[in-house]
Design a protein that fits this description.
5 helices, alpha+beta, 5 strands, five-stranded mixed β-sheet, 198 residues, 14% strand
């Protein structure tokens, strides 16, 4: 795929056309390629930058209103998805799970020793299964996060994304989000096992 060469001055000029007095602007540097034209998403906010006032779709290649309208949804979806993967998935991927590994190893040892009554043995086996599932889900989440970030880095380096890459991003986000929710469900279920007196 070709790399997009950005004319910074032209982009800034296009963004400034839509800016109101006392607003600042930010241009998302990863464009959307549609009909061989690149489209950028520009955000406008108050001077402190903490309150987004509006947005504009800008293109140095075309003035076709229809194409600008068609670019809006993919650009917003891409920006939101990348943000969520980077900040939500990234936070989850950074969690240190060393305690869970130690806990799993401890549970494996005591379950393997088979020293408890049948009732207690079942409780420890369930706990082991839950902890093992949480570890597996976290490892899958971390893998999904890094796959998504690799795709983001590739599109950032090239300067644009296409529809197929947007679907990959969205699929990675759904995967990260689904695994996060499943982990939370398992964590709640884990509480049931530890609520019993042993």
């Amino acid at each position: 795929m070709k790399k997009v060469v950005v004319d910074e001055k032209r982009l800034i000029k296009l963004a400034k056309k839509h800016k109101n007095f006392l607003e600042s602007y930010t241009i998302n540097r990863v464009a959307y390629l549609f009909n061989d034209h690149v489209f950028y998403l520009a955000y406008f906010s108050n001077k402190s930058g903490d309150n987004i006032k509006g947005h504009a779709i800008i293109s140095p290649d075309t003035d076709d209103r229809y194409e600008h309208e068609m670019a809006l949804s993919p650009l917003v979806q891409h920006a939101v998805t990348v943000h969520n993967i980077k900040y939500t998935g990234g936070e989850r991927a950074k969690i240190k799970f060393s305690f869970f590994y130690e806990y799993r190893d401890y549970l494996e040892d005591i379950v393997g020793a088979n020293v408890f009554s049948q009732e207690h043995q079942v409780i420890y086996e369930r706990a082991l299964k839950v902890v093992s599932n949480v570890i597996d889900l976290q490892e899958n989440l971390v893998n999904s996060y890094y796959e998504a970030m690799d795709l983001h880095n590739e599109t950032s380096k090239r300067g644009y994304f296409i529809d197929e890459e947007l679907e990959k991003f969205r699929g990675r986000f759904r995967e990260v989000n689904r695994r996060s929710k499943r982990e939370a469900t398992i964590s709640v279920a884990k509480g049931e096992y530890y609520g019993k007196a042993i």
